[in-house]
Each structure stands twice: as C-alpha cells, then as structure tokens.
Amino acid sequence: MAGPPPHLAVDGYVDAIPGPGIGWGTAVFDLIHSPADADRIAADTPDTIYVCTTADPRITDVLLRDIQPGDLLRVTGTLLQPTTDGAPTRLTVDALKVLDTASLPVLREMVLDRYGDYVVIFDADTDAVPVFTTGGMWVGLADNPDAIATLIDIHERVTGSDA
Predict the structure, then answer these.
(1) Per-residue pLDDT for 162 more than 70?
(2) Please, which residues have CB within 8 angstroms of residue 79's CB and are 6 or more apart in sequence?
(3) Highest-pLDDT range among 44-48, 111-115, 137-141
(4) Where are the alpha helices (DSSP H) in 48-139?
(5) What are the residues facing 7 on neighbouring strands?
(6) Of 14, 5, 6, which Cα lies nearest the Cα of 52?
(7) CA distances from 73 to 28, 59, 60, 127 (A)
(8) Distance separating alpha carbons of residues 50 and 14, to the nearest angstrom
(9) Is the pLDDT of residue 1 over 50?
(10) 88-113 burial, b for 16+ CB within 10 Å, e for fewer?
C-alpha cells in the first residue's frame, strides 16, 4: 500500500512567464531546479523541471502579477510522480516565497498588440510571435507576423469560438 504523495520544498528558477491555469484562481509555471552540489556530480547531470500548479488564489495572484522568468522561488507542495516515462514531475504548490528577483526585462524591444479577442507579443529579437486569447489561453506560436491570422483562424475553427 502506497503512502501519501511526498510534501517537499524546492528552490528553482522560473523558466517562463507563469500562465493562468484551467480553473478560476489557478496558475501554472515551470520551475528549473539545479542540483544542489554541482561540484560533486557529473557535469552532464541535467536540471530537474517541475511543472507546477496552484489553486490558491493568493499564490496565483502573485504568480500572474509579479513573477517573471529568472526569478528564484522556493515552492512548497505535494509532489506527483509522472504517470508515463519522459513526462515531467508535477508539483502542486501550496506555499511560495520569492528568494531573488531577476533583473527587470527590457520592454522597449517588445510590443503587445491586440487582434480582436487575441493578444500577440512582438519581440525584436525573433520573428516568432506568441498568441494568446485575451483571457490568457495559449493559442500558439506564429512562425512570423504574417502567420498570425492563419493561427487565429485555425484556433477558431478548432475551438468553435472567437476566443
């Protein structure tokens, strides 16, 4: 008989901007945890990626408003082992502490634009354009600005809605 899932604290860096979760008051983000003692392990030992979720509206608010890529966090929660080989480890977060913040991003090279019920982010460093609904749902990555309309059209046909 298996015991309850382990409850643990993990320190790691936020990999990308946290996003809204599936339900109200939820958020999702990836946390990169590097081995604690890099001097004692093989140089090619990989970092661990935790796919984190939270249903605590207070933590969600902090994640969606204040956290950015590169921030160092300590998250505490319940560890859920992957159900299939190669799937990431999942962590349900019930406490969060910001240990260090990343330097502020330079926004002058990034522009947000709105296409009806969709939001896109133009970045001067890449042709690829991330596309979201105004509600925060991920739509996809357009290869270039000319492909935005096609991506939105496909999303609308698949979901059967405008957003």
Answers:
(1) no
(2) 5, 6, 7, 8, 89, 90, 91
(3) 137-141
(4) 57-66
(5) 78
(6) 14
(7) 14, 12, 14, 31
(8) 10
(9) no
(10) ebbbbbeebeeeeeeeeeeeeeeeee
